[in-house]
């Protein structure tokens, strides 16, 4: 057969391959799940739990790769430049939406560079310190930070991280400017909080629950409307008289724009199965993390949330004038 005849036959065959057959063919190699923060941190913990289940569904390993830096925008930039074939995906939290305004000079267009797999989880946050930090309770802590704002070291995972947003809310609510210390993720920030290298950290329950339960850190207040079920002894900030310190974190899964529909559908299906997996659900529950309802694990639902969150945060960030670059 001549080269031209082979090419013509190939083209004819590819035209006749039904979409579901393409879907069956994906993935043809291991899938890389980019995590924008350090190993051992809250995003990493969620990603690794989901990756295990998704590997079983997809019949290929889903390998977690931590690409840290610039509040998660390095990982998002890496995704934007990846081949759009479904073999690279990103698990990120709401920082994916806030960074659209926080970073004035992003190497990608947040509105056009990505396609959506689905929403993943929601996670509450809380304020912690080392067990022997001198403030005995939240009221004493507020007094202490008001008296010594500059000496108080508040850790975060960099502009765009939710620990950064949560810390900003805390400082606004209290009316102080503390000294902030950025880390590549709240995994190492929590380690340094326990070790006393920094004083305070606003972290997600996915990262902090074991440390609180094991006495590695002292929890002063949750940044939630109601107490967190898994940490019933920790009062909310509101209960303790501080208004305006409330934040909920959501996560989504993304692929590069132009990823074939069939591959994206398989990823959404694998994500749905992972979030219905009893082992995943139980581990999430222990960490105070809630999988989103199954009907929200759709590209449309994440796209709507992502775009509405960009609009929600834009005026707040612009008003604060706290840009990352
Ligand atoms: C992490 O995984 O380290 C966190 O999600 C970082 C953050 O946003 O605070």
What would you say this structure looks like, in words?
- Pfam families: TctC (PF03401).
- InterPro entries: BUG, Bug_dom1.
- This is Tripartite tricarboxylate transporter substrate-binding protein.
- Belongs to the UPF0065 (bug) family.
- The chain has 325 residues and is an alpha/beta fold.
- The chain has 2 domains: 27-121 and 249-320, Bordetella uptake gene, domain 1 (D-Maltodextrin-Binding Protein, domain 2, 3-Layer(aba) Sandwich), CATH 3.40.190; 124-240, Periplasmic binding protein-like II (D-Maltodextrin-Binding Protein, domain 2).
- The protein is 44% helix and 19% strand.
- The protein is built from 12 helices and 10 strands.
- Strands 1, 2, 3, 4, 5, 6, 7, 8, 9 and 10 form a 10-stranded mixed beta sheet that branches.
- Strand 5 (153-156), helix 7 (162-174) and strand 6 (179-182) form a beta-alpha-beta unit.
- Helix 2 crosses helix 10 and helix 3 (42-58) packs across helix 10 (261-275).
- The chain starts with a helix and ends in a 5-residue tail after the last helix.
- It binds D-malate.
